[in-house]
Amino acid sequence: MAIMLLLFLVANLLTASRSPTVWQDEVMFTDPAVNLATGHGFTSTAWGFQTREQLWAGNAPLHSLLLAPWIKIFGVSPTSARSINYLYMVTAALLLWLGLARNAVIRNSFWRLFAVLLFLTGYCLSFNYRSARYDCLGMLLLALAFYSVSFTGWKRMVGLVVPGFLLSATGLHLLPFATLFGILVSVYFGFSKLRYFIIAGIASVAGFLTMLAIFHANGVMDQFFGSVRSFSSSSGSRFSPANLSAVLHEPGILLLSGVALLLTGFDLFKHSFKWRSPLGFALGVMVVMPLGMTAFRGEMPVYYCWMVFIPLSIAVAATLDGGAVERPGYLRAIAGLLLLVAALAGLPLRLLITASEWSKRDYAPVEAFVQRNVTSSDWIYCDYAAFYAAKRAAAVVLLPGYAERVGVPPDEAARVRVLIVAPANFAAAQALIGGKWEKQKDELIPPGDQNGSRHGAALYHLAVYNRSPV
Predict the structure, then answer these.
(1) DSSP-assigned letters across all residues of 401-427
(2) How many Cβ atoms are within 10 Å of 202's Cβ, its own excluded?
(3) What is the pLDDT of residues 75-115, one digit of tens each?
(4) Domain extents in the chain
(5) pTM above 0.90, yes or no
């Protein structure tokens, strides 16, 4: 277990700055943390729902608050912003390992290790912790609550109340997930378990009301609900294949579902299948979680697929752990092989792709490019790709989501002297900021194949534009 966690940390830290290439979501949730860490308050010019002077009222403020001191210590960089998630994941993995043992969910250490391996390497999970999103903090809080159930008295109470209270500030999507999960656990394993979810649920309501009181006191309640409504919208029917596309194509979920169906077919053939079992729970997760979260969110993007992947992987591993049903060795071997493929299809595959495009994904040329073209007094507008370098170099950095949704007041737009954007994005940037601009000779062009990554990554292609003299 210790070796696996160490390898996880080393592999991710060594490759953090190269995969993925810097993208929109990580910038939106990192910007308020950078501003707070650098003495500019808990504000943002990347968030498209409020002005840069207002207290940031994003849908997951706790992650950004915790990220601020982390950035103050380790600096403004992709590795710094992303590495806090590795800490969350390692801690959650330890709590998961202990919780699975203490709660007697998976007694055999081999299958328990397999469950933790899937937790650390799953495709959708590696997407989250490598992209500087906030989801891993929610996983940590849920793992803490799960581990705390194994205790009694005040330890259990604290272990349920604290994560419950913080859940809303970690992401509102965790509330419907915890509700669906609690219903499934109660239906399949007894309603005596429901009391744990009720305790955490009461604490969650208290935490949600506290968060709303803070937003109300700072005059940003409407902005908060505006962002929540925006992120909960969908196109067409909520249960259309398009809105469920990510979960239907997530390789780990497909393989785990295949194992669950294989084991179900065997048990039905042997007349030994029981609905109220880990295997029955796995089938329930496969159906209820995607549909339930899509009903709430409007779609099931890849960064929410962990809500299916984690309980499904634990349920499958618990089924293979043994129990009342005797299954032949060849069936366990086939199932184990499919689980191994599910693990390999996540983090190991990402690392392989990153290694194959090592020079193309290097962020150092972006940093050097921005440093050459920006001074500490500049107000600039830039693509998300230039975010980390720009925040270190410029006085004020405006980003696309903010400029598009909130708009830049004319007096502030007039202070923007530099645009750092991909040539394809220049027209949109000019429309947002206004004025006339001159393209400079300095241009950052991706090495090798200029059509971009063969694996879907947006490589760094940036040009600099200076405002023309009036």
Answers:
(1) HHHHHT---HHHHTTEEEEEE-GGGHH
(2) 14
(3) 999 999 999 999 999 999 999 999 999 999 999 999 999 99
(4) 2-17+77-354, 364-467
(5) yes
